[in-house]
Amino acid sequence: xxxxxxxxxxxxxxxxxxxxxxxxxxxxxxxxxxxxxxxxxxxxxxxxxxxxxxxxxxxxxxxxxxxxxxxxxxxxxxxxxxxxxxxxxxxxxxxxxxxxxxxxxxxxxxxxxxxxxxxxxxxxxxxxxxxxxxxxxxxxxxxxxxxxxxxxxxxxxxxxxxxxxxxxxxxxxxxxxxxxxxxxxxxxxxxxxxxxxxxxxxxxxxxxxxxxxxxxxxxxxxxxxxxxxxxxxxxxxxxxxxxxxxxxxxxxxxxxxxxxxxxxxxxxxxxxxxxxxxxx
Length: 280
Prior knowledge:
Elements: H1 2-17, E1 27-31, E2 34-41, E3 44-50, E4 60-63, H2 75-86, E5 90-93, H3 105-118, E6 125-130, H4 133-143, E7 148-154, H5 161-165, H6 180-190, H7 195-200, H8 210-215, E8 219-227, H9 236-245, E9 250-259, H10 268-276
């Protein structure tokens, strides 16, 4: 009886604490001194980046396709997130659909279910994206607003008319550079038969804000005001106007930078935002 009692206690303690990094399946790799596990679900593969010791409640950050390099265009963003790892957050790389189609939600759904039920992760996730990853982020977040703690967007695509549409698409008044191959992929993915049909569709993040505003999900955006790839006036500025009109909380940090910049030199405002809205 005594052995049964203590086995029950130990099981309950294990459930309350959640799994530790050593419990993860999949291939283990080193990621700048942290453990990385490449794992699988029936819906696809994903990666978990583990802190040395998980913070209370096991908070975590969702990332998508571009995250993981500490040099180059996205290096400053990854380096900022390394500070989250140091403070006990897990970072999870689980791509959705690159064109923002709802079919991409299945992989994120599977990862969320696995991590929150079998590994004790927080039931609410912080989400972050760069550039086109923002399409997948808002598609999943708008379908699951009760599961989202906060959203951080770095020069993100908020309006498909701006990117990948851009000025190269006939009949579109965007001043953005545009991306013909990505525009063709978007039309194929959604089954649009013409440019006009794609331009008229409400499939952009700026069209998916109402559920998030109703759920009180805060948004932080970093935007380059001279970005020619994802122009601020066609993306972040519209996002801010619409979200505030819906009663949502949104903050924009602007930088006088051109091309398509990513990351802040000092990521402190981003880290403070994420931690401020972590309920675990």
